[in-house]
Amino acid sequence: MHAAVAGTPLQWGVFFALLLGMLVLDLGVFNRQAHRVGLREAVFWSVVWTLVALAFNGWIYYRFGTRTGFEFLTGYVIERSLSFDNIFVFVVLFNYFAVPAEHQHRVLFWGILGALISRGLFIGMGTALLARFAWLILVFGGFLVYTGIKILLEKETEVHPEHNPVLRLFRRFVPLSTRYHGKHFFIRDDGGRFKATPLLLVLVVVEATDVVFAVDSIPAVFGVTTNAFIVFTSNIFAILGLRALYFLLAGLMHKFRFLSYGLGLVLIFVGAKMLIHDWLEIPVELSLAIVLGILAVAVALSLLIPAPPEEASLPDPLEIAGDFEHSPAARELEIEEQAK
After folding, report:
1. Stronger pLDDT, 295 or 95, i.e. the higher one
2. Sign of the CA dihedral with 171 first, then 119, 318, and 163 last
3. What is the spatial distance between Cα 47 and Cα 218, in angstroms, rounded to a whole number?
4. What pTM was computed for the model?
């Protein structure tokens, strides 16, 4: 497993300065006012984040060399493809909580900010463990193969927010408002008590969901390189483009019916690569070609063999009314209260 020279403190500082600068522009300038993200805006930001990632990849190529440049690009492609599962879950969650379309961007923004911290911790621990116990790469590889096979065997992805333990703990210990209050995460009721709004509840569930996805996605990038700088930056650039990708594809996820199988095959390939790296090292250029090939075939099959008309798809979360009081989540909460 190749590990190029890690980034210097200055290079880490430049990366975080670029990152925070773009996030401030995103929320503080371009999205200061809550609004529904339209198709044109989603396309614009998808292109912007992709170009920024590729420009950074160009700098990696110039600074560290061809091999490390390909490692970043391969890690970025893997993370970007695995993020499609996140989009599906976001669609389910936003429908379940009836999140107003104009506030979905705010939830995803703060969710990604939290993901920067949680994924940084995961990557830091993973790098330290692999440096001390090299054999753990086999454990990561076996886990990815298992996860990939599990995805292939599942007929469809099912998400049940009502069974989420984080959701239940939050509702048990945190006073919750019964309706949305604009973009606010907290409000003060008539009695002067602070209450969380459903928007904070959604954010907490989104954060918990990202932690679950990180368990799969981060080991996948370790299958490409153990360089913490490359693992972290490729991971973060991939999830930074996730919000724009969500608004671009939220209503179309049902059309990519074979993509989950492609993602399963990608995980199996990366896991197998990790398992055999002591005996056979697959060039990173070939790894990138295989990953892109698998994803291209999965997307092509999805377009050539569309789902039957009778297969119902989830409602477009950008079209929901945003009425929490009549959402599935509110009904579940009411049932729990009546059962006490």
Report:
1. 295
2. negative
3. 24
4. 0.84
